Task: structure prediction
Amino acid sequence: MSVLCADDAAATRTLLRPRLSWSKPRTRAIFLQLMVVAVACAIMTMVAIQTAANLRQRGIASGFDFLSRATGFEISAGPLSYSSRDTYIRALELGLLNTLRVALLGILLATGLGLLIGITRLSNIWVISTMSRAYVEILRNTPLLLQLLFWYSLSQALPGPHAALHLFPGVFLCLRGLFLPSLVWHEGYLGLSGALLAFAILIPLVRTRSRQRRERKGRGLPTTLLLAGAAVVLLSAAIAIDRPGLTIERPVLIGFDFHGGMSISSEFATLLIGLSTYTAAFIGEIVRGGFLAVDKGQTEAAAVLGLSRRKALRLVVLPQALRVIIPPTTSQFLNLFKNSSLAVAIGYPDLISITSATLNQTGQAIEAITLAMIFYLAISLTISLIMNFYNTAIVSPERGGHNS
Amino acid sequence: MEAPPGHAQTHHSSATPTLDGVRRKGFVQCGVTTGVAGFSAPDAHGQWRGLDVDVCRAIAAAVLGDATKVRFTPLTAAQRFIALQSGEIDVLSRITTITFQRDVQLGIEFPASDWYDGTGFIVHKRLHVKSVKDLDGATICLSPGTTNEVDVADYFRKNNLKFTPVVIERLEDGTNAYFAGRCDAFSQDRSNLAAVRARAPNPGDHVILSEVISKAPFGPGVMPNDLRWMEIVRWSVYAMIDAEELGLSSKTIEQALASNDPNVQRFVGKTSGFGAMLGVDADWAFKIVKQVGNYAEIFDRNLKPLGVERGLNRLWKDGGILYVPDLR
Result:
């Protein structure tokens, strides 16, 4: 009851009296809301009890004991080591990481590409704006599953590993994926970590100096150039001091496949390309809408103040456009993340693929699907949370200040 | 929680919810594949054909006296057990391997096995692979949710070999990826590989390895709440095999009605009253053979044209392992 006291003391006194007055709208509202919650809880409990009874009656084992048993099946690839002797938990973890890997990279790529599409859509050059428009209309108006299957069959038209395209020295492209040389850094981690630490300290230092200088002289330092230079110097110093064993490992065709180096499987590449190009079409439209929403007077006012076109865009137009852009973009990020579950169609071992393998091998459908739903919900909520935080902390504070 | 009426009786002999349901509906709802040639696939006229389909038809002939009174529910590997457990189908006849876990943990009963299979491989001919052991380091395409997935992992682990799986949900997409060369080999039930090869752009480019790395007895599955239904499914399968052994086929069974052989007389329902004991018509087995055929006819009709060898699935007296109890 104490929650209710804050704004309406009189109402609270009425509420605290033994007889609750039915004529008070507030009492009625509380009562009705409690009823709704109670009914919802009762229905959910009944469903749970009935399900448990049905499962028992049909002799179906339930519970999460299966999670600690060995799976017995293999999974092609992932950021964790895994074998068929590992448990279902491990397999699901691997699936989750595979989903996160493709979704996060997809979000980055879709954002970059979407920004490009959105800006080129507004271009005054007819060819460029028409091309962007065609891109948006085609990608946005065909089903994603179809697009994924299209990209996948395109990748399957590449030659096999024995006739792989030798793009650059050590770089091979075939229908199994892209095989690249990898840089292996043996020993000498001390110098590298020292360099990284120094660089981390340098960043705020340079930025503070730049700001101070701007306040004094009206012009800051070329921070990006300075930091890039520092990175090169520090890395060279680390290599010179530590003399680490730096070797380049090239992929080599042994037997059936390429071994060594790095590889990007055609399934991962297909899913990443499919998800990011599809979502970029939507983000492009959101970006275009965001820029169009900023009043033309803002650009004119910035010009009057003597700001260059680049600065006007960065300091005046973009902050206002972002306010319009961020909320719908968040839901596009969520869509991309959830759409990654189409992976199963092209054989990428994502969370849904591993969940359905688990479901098939154990038969514990309710448990496996519940787990997958919890994972998806948790990650979706995390994405929303981060984007909302970004929205309130960085984008919204500028509201009001610039508004005419 | 109170069980709904009809499930209340604990004496399974009197509780026959599935059988009652089938009689009430007037047809058998049968779970099959979404299309695996030879076992269950619709033909050019939309009619379901295959060994698994004929098992369903035999059950309908036994219970309802009419082999056409079957409705088919196409199911993926992932959906099949849920469909059975939820009561959406009366019987699951879908190239399903009988395993301990499916029997004990999923609570599914497998009254009889109707096909003996095992996990095999098809490989690209140009790779010159002669045996499964030559596949060390290979990429293998698989269908998710199958026993093949586990069989391959087990076999490679046991023999200290490595492989990379590519698991694609739809069989067609999986075989296409294999044909394109995404995988060096494709693993499936041995009996299915002939059909896979037949679908290849150039079937001569592919070899089916002779090795079979696992045992896979297939059989129809039912829920354990209806013992009588389970018995009907079991004896429908047995009747098809017994008929072959007795030399009774869809063409000869009319004449067999006049036979003096006591075994034949029992089979066609002239004596002993087995039909009544099973709660179906006296001539239930006669109808199965008349309307669907014996096991050899079913094999010849469905699997032989695909180039599948009968192998283990011959009668015991012909060197196979089909050995079932007689109707006595």
Notes: Chain A has three domains: 2-57, 88-181+264-398, 188-249.
